[in-house]
Amino acid sequence: MPESKQGSSIAHFDVTNIGGIDETSVDIPPSVTVLTGKNATNRTSFLQSIMAAMGSTQATLKGDADEGSVALTYGDEVYERTLTRAGDAVQFDGDGYLDDPAVADLFAFLLETNEARRSVARGDDLREIIMRPVDIDAIRSEVEQLEAEKGDINDELATVESRQRDLPDLEQRRTELREQIEEKREELAEREEEIDNSSRDIEESRQEQDVLEEKLDELRSTRSDLESVRRDIEAQEESISSLKRERSDLEDELDDLPETPMGDQQHLEDEIASLRDQRQRLNSEISDLQSLIQYNEERLEEEDYDVIQSLEDAPEGSDGAVTEQLLEGEDEESVVCWTCGSTVDREQIEDTVDRLQDLRRQKVEDLNDIKSELDDLKTDQREAEKKQRRREDVERKIQETETEIERRDEQITSLKDRREELTEDVESLEDEVDNLESEDFDEILSLHREANQLEFEIDSLESDLDDVSAEIEEIEELVNRADDLRDERDALVEELTDKRTKIDQIEANAVDEFNEHMDAILGILEYENLERIWIERVEQTVREGRQKVDRTVFELHIVRTTENGAAYEDTIEHLSESEREVTGLIFALAGYLVHDLHESVPFMLLDSLEAIDSARIAELVEYFADYAEHLVVALLPEDAQALDDDFNRITSI
């Protein structure tokens, strides 16, 4: 059995003014604790105290008290909570053992009105109850985020693969550039040697030659600057062309997006708010109806028909208007008898309770429809917000692109002005060189021009070589990162698979847990001719809001056998009260296990087992004891006699 975070500790409770308790202190050791006593001995009140200490709000104040409290000492920690009357409600303060007790209320604290326990007999949506603690919207949001991250990685990998395909051509281009530079350098060396030989023949004209060489150097430098400017202009023009293509693509995408993705957002928010109000109202009405049904069923079970009184004496939260509506069609005397407490026939009361149950089921269906419609509207809202964000992003990128185009246009204008200046300088220098030329220097001048041109070409080739080498290095770095990107993508795919299948896994695990433990407990309890009770997951097409969707439902199957051994399928209505109670408890146990409450909630509570015979209660308690660190069971003395004598027993609270 898994241990809770406190280990195997004795739990000490100090309780004041909760339920029917004035004041008490109780120790609960690990394993099974049996609260035994007749009715009205505060057994259920103490179970409520445990729930309050755990963090639950399903506890009541003593009728004549305005404040109550419970303190739990567990291990080295103390958890204290206070209950204060606030009008018709009770306010809870302090820190309980659990940060969020909602799942424990549903699957660990199995008192008589526990929803999971009663869901089987009421024919509730079993899948909805099992999946209620699961934040499906959060899972869907995580899936969307992971898909976006995977898409970004795929885009980056596609870029890497595209750039990698350019590597062979770039490497070939680098080799060609190196060869061309080597050839030019060899040719330049030859020209310089020829210049040196020619210079020795015209030593007497050295001064004129120096002037000429100075002008030639200046001419070469100016031509180099001019060529650099031309290359810069070409590069800027290519960049502008690329930016214009990008702008065109963005404008096409913008045209495909709706102009006002959010539409009438206020109307959508108002509709969502309205549906939430309807959902809250229906939840309240369903709770009121359940209280009214439970109250009258208790009166029927106790055969106390004359105690049914006016709605002022009904349980808090009962809806008198609903009762009067249900009684429309009865004669006037029946209505008066219902509200004033006069004696009425049992059949009339049972008929009223049946109609109350029908109304509750109808309201549950209405509630499910509203939840579905609310989910649809939230989905529409999220999609509109997504498109709005994309439209804003595209518009921003278009604006940035246009700004960049304008900036580069300005740079081109400036470069063209510079090109004109350099062109004029080259023409001027060429004129000066022509004036310095003479027949004696024709050959050497020609050699200098060739040498200047070779040096310019070498500079240009070396610049190209640097660019190509830098691009190759960049691609190689991208290729080296590709393995890391693939590892990241594999991890994302694995996480995506886990998220996408999480809901299915929880559903499948819940069904497996129920079927496994139901088979085991039926084998132990040996109900006559009850062969098997099991849940099947099936896909059904149902209407949710404005559309039809495929949805998983849990179908409960009951198989009995005849005296001659033939099997046939039965319905929940034909189960005995004992069989229904056991089935509801095993369904709650399945939820307890599938949501891992055995790892975080140290207490499981059982109450109101009178419908099950004492021998089977003993077997049931032994079975549940394997899954909770502290199993606290409230029993009548005659039912408690069948339990193991080694269990801790508390007879006075």
UniProtKB/TrEMBL annotation:
Biased composition regions of type Acidic residues, renumbered to the chain: 249-258
Keywords (A to Z) from UniProt: Coiled coil
Keyword flag Coiled coil: yes
Annotated stretches, region: Disordered: 184-272, 370-405
Gene3D superfamilies: 1.10.287.1490, P-loop containing nucleotide triphosphate hydrolases
Feature: compositional bias, Basic and acidic residues: 197-234
InterPro entries xrefs: P-loop_NTPase
Family note: Belongs to the Sph1/Sph2 family.
Record-given protein name: Chromosome segregation protein SMC
Organism: Haloarcula marismortui (strain ATCC 43049 / DSM 3752 / JCM 8966 / VKM B-1809)
